[in-house]
Structures are given as structure tokens and as C-alpha cells.
Amino acid sequence: MIDYSTYMMTPSLDEEGTAKAYARAQMRELMTFDKFVRHIAEHNGVFSRGTVQGVILDMCECLVEMLLDGKKVQLGALGDFFVSLNTEGAASQEEFTAANIKGVSVVFTPGKDFEGLRDRAVFNPVASRVAQAATLKAEKAGEATVNLEAAKRKPNTSEETGV
Hints:
With 163 residues, the chain is an alpha+beta fold. It has helices at 33-44, 49-68, 117-120, 129-140, 148-153, 158-161, and strands spanning 2-9, 20-26, 73-74, 79-87, 101-110, 123-125. The chain has 6 helices and 6 strands. The strands form 2 sheets. Strands 2-1-6 form a 3-stranded mixed β-sheet, with no helix packed on it. The two termini are 20 Å apart.
């Protein structure tokens, strides 16, 4: 089940400047690498946690090596990985050097197993993280009401949002 909250936003290309409602996925739980490895090991039952962890770690190391070697890596149903460059423009091609390259990003294109996620998903509306944090803070303080507008104006901190 995918939890989501809604928010109002004016699209930058909207000439009329009319705000519209959009959805934002809300993370239910952070699944650490160790938890994910344990899930895979328990799900299949054939390989131990150590074997699963080793294969994934080795795959990541090899994936980085291949990407740095300029290769696009296809991992079947998982998808494809390749690099993209973040660059600063130069006045001409002759003036462009590697110093204009400011970063390297990894691009992931999902494979077949990720097709049709919308049709397979179940959606659950929930309060935004700001609203959840404000409600919890009010509960702890013994307050009966929450001023959501005030909570939305405050800058989010990791203490308030739990993130």
C-alpha cells in the first residue's frame, strides 16, 4: 500500500497561476540494507543472509566499476544503469574542458518488473509529515487542537518531522 498526502502547487508553466492539488508519496518505513537482505534471504530461503549480502555488495562494486568505464549496464528485469554528466557551460566547444564537468549522476531506467506499478498499487491517503509532526507535538503537550497553517509556515527540522 502506498501512503500519500496532498498539497497545493501552482505549476510553473501555468500562465494563469492557478494552484492545483497534487499527491506526494509518504514513506511508511525506511528499509535498511540489512533489513532488505534479511527479507530476500527469508523470501527465497535458498541463500543465507551472508550470501545475499555478499552478492549485492559485489554487484554494487562491479556496477560502479562498469559505469566508471563508460558502460551502460543492463540488469534484466531490474533495469538499466548509466551515467549522466552535470556540466557548467563554456563559451565554445574549444573552451570546454573536463573542469566544466561538475558531477556524475547515475541514471536508472526501470525494467519489466516495474511496469504497471500504477495498476498494481493500492493507495492510502494520509496526513502530510508536517501535519503528523504537529499533531504528535500537540498530543504530547496535552493540546486539543492543532494549527496546521502555523505548522506549515515553520521550517522543518529533523526533530519535528522524524526524518
